[in-house]
Protein 1
Amino acid sequence: LAKTTQPISMDSYEGQEVNITCSHNNIATNDYITWYQQFPSQGPRFIIQGYKTKVTNEVASLFIPADRKSSTLSLPRVSLSDTAVYYCLVGGGSGNTGKLIFGQGTTLQVKP
Amino acid sequence: DSGVTQTPKHLITATGQRVTLRCSPRSGDLSVYWYQQSLDQGLQFLIQYYNGEERAKGNILERFSAQQFPDLHSELNLSSLELGDSALYFCASSVGPEYDGELFFGEGSRLTVL
């Protein structure tokens, strides 16, 4: 499974757009990129997944360049409730086995 | 609600003791994953089971063991407990044996070892 690198922490203000970038230089051809959100004392929750280009859902967008060695989670107009830890996870696709390893994640603090 | 149920939610015990944490996966999911999260630490992968068989192993201590039963629920057994074992233990489930992009996590079991 590809190793991921993310910033440890980020600060933002309510109403701003937040972009969190994850590096995954040794991503495999059949790996997907998935982002999870975790609130204190809760289990992580799936946000979005993509393979290449851009994916958008009701809560976020995921931008993946052509070389797929990085990805950027974009949260539009964040609110205080978006304060959480965000994890980038790379893997999946046929032929991948377990050992799903989460990195240290990015702690996002949204201020009023 | 993810559909994954973990019990107990909280557990306080003493060093040297043994505890069992239980996980019921989402209906239809055959894979169960166990993770440990200590204070200010990330999620540490422990072990994965698929349809009753061990599928992948992470940094699980020899004092810890797990199994998945025919009804697909799983138990994580922690023995000879040490202070450092105090953590949140999460169970997650997914449909198949291979990670397909979405894990469903339970609310966790918070273990405190005194």
Note: The mean pLDDT of chain B is 93.
Protein 2
Amino acid sequence: GQNIDQPTEMTATEGAIVQINCTYQTSGFNGLFWYQQHAGEAPTFLSYNVLDGLEEKGRFSSFLSRSKGYSYLLLKELQMKDSASYLCAVRDSGGGADGLTFGKGTHLIIQP
Amino acid sequence: AAGVIQSPRHLIKEKRETATLKCYPIPRHDTVYWYQQGPGQDPQFLISFYEKMQSDKGSIPDRFSAQQFSDYHSELNMSSLELGDSALYFCASSLGNRNIQYFGAGTRLSVL
């Protein structure tokens, strides 16, 4: 089975930086994904890590440490539209088209 | 760019009725995944198909079935609907069975 933990809610200020942490315990591992989801809408892909280290993509960066079962999503230059839920998801190491196991999501509130 | 298309966007059914949800993947994508997201919950993986064959199975009830057709679109068939089946149903697609999953806008099913 898989267990994924992330904070339920975080608050940050417009223009600032925020880091959303995710820890996971999985029987197998073949990649960690971050998705953004606005209420009632589809999850939107943000980043993907399969090897240790930092992946940077514009205002968003994601870090992975497989030995620690740990990842974080870093959002810079926060904008009001970044208010959303951020979902950490892990893919198992099975042989097929595996479904993702999602964490409960972190609800990020951006204040002016 | 073309995205994953799901239909219908909204569906209202009564208990014990049947429902069929359709998913059209991004052009050239050969892999489809189905997820169920209850109110305030994270998406739960149901089932996936790669090259028209079932690839992985998650928490899909026996009352549900799905298939992927020759044009790669997929349908999720739900029978004997229960109140607890009310949820957002997302379809995602990927190019290849181990790549990034892109989500459709979802079908909101309400069972009365």
Note: The radius of gyration of chain A is 14 Å.
Protein 3
Amino acid sequence: DVKVTQSSRYLVKRTGEKVFLECVQDMDHENMFWYRQDPGLGLRLIYFSYDVKMKEKGDIPEGYSVSREKKERFSLILESASTNQTSMYLCASRSPAQGVNTEAFFGQGTRLTVV
Amino acid sequence: GENVEQHPSTLSVQEGDSAVIKCTYSDSASNYFPWYKQELGKRPQLIIDIRSNVGEKKDQRIAVTLNKTAKHFSLHITETQPEDSAVYFCAASRGSSASKIIFGSGTRLSIRP
């Protein structure tokens, strides 16, 4: 069974704090993703990493950065948390097989509240 | 940039009836189209996917159709059951190992008993 684990299920942070959301996968997947889920807006891509130390911006990267120093771990960083970053954050990973896209597996999500 | 539009945003059907959810995509280079189901409080999980070299795929009560010319794809659920109640997301992705997955905005499906 593929396991994608996010470090926290619920998190409450203060405005202006630096926040780290961690995601670990145990299946040696090359691709990892961070999405934010808001009602009526679906899953919006924040950042994407297609391999170690490689990253690409998604649709809404402003206010976020990422780190992928090891293949199994992909971190999302909120440089200075703001209330409009209150949301559900979902991490996902997948392993493209010979350039063919395959299923992505999701973590359980982190519900972040910024007060 | 790439965009996936999904309709309707909410759908209520009588148990036993069919449900159809439609998506359109903007990136003509997309060739992989997965559908995910997210039950309340749970993570999204893949229920079916289709690649651009086929027009239709079925798995028991679930089917997906793809029209590459029109850049449309649809999810069909027949003989709906209470456990089909969930949020469904369509997505599109290009065929390379460094491709993003772009999701639609989701459809909340409710099955009326």
Note: The first strand of chain A starts at residue 4 and ends at 6.
Protein 4
Amino acid sequence: AQSVAQPEDQVNVAEGNPLTVKCTYSVSGNPYLFWYVQYPNRGLQFLLKYITGDNLVKGSYGFEAEFNKSQTSFHLKKPSALVSDSALYFCALDRDSSYKLIFGSGTRLLVRP
Amino acid sequence: KAGVTQTPRYLIKTRGQQVTLSCSPISGHRSVSWYQQTPGQGLQFLFEYFSETQRNKGNFPGRFSGRQFSNSRSEMNVSTLELGDSALYLCASSPRKTTDTQYFGPGTRLTVL
């Protein structure tokens, strides 16, 4: 069975500091990994995805994520956090022919001024 | 391009009633997926449609059903509503393949009283 884990319910960082939101996964076959962000009373906004190729993926708004096959991780990172990055972040997993996303439980990011 | 649109945005129903939610995908997208988001269960996959065919279905009771029309618009129906069906229902569209990014609509907030 495939699954996604986001071990931290909340991450607190100061503005200007680097941030990391953690994600680990379990899947048989090739993983396709995604990060989405959700602002209050909004749907999910796509940030980035890993399908194949370079393990470092760059996405929207300065975010990037590193795919690590040996550690089955796909952590989201940003070199310098902004207060406006405060939101709920979801890691998601898909695989060949499943046609569905399996989501992690979400991590609330709070960036303090 | 216009994004994914969902109607209505808010809905209040009472137990035992039924409800129909509508989703219009991004122009040219042929795959439509539905997800339920609740504080307790997080984001859970309901079903996915492509060219009017359901390709995958999540673990929800038969009260939850959906369909897709020839113009790729999709509807989901919940019959005999229960209090636990209160949730944000999200629709997502993508062009075709598993590796394609799913783009989400703003959701329909359903409250069951």
Note: DSSP finds no helices and twelve strands in chain A.
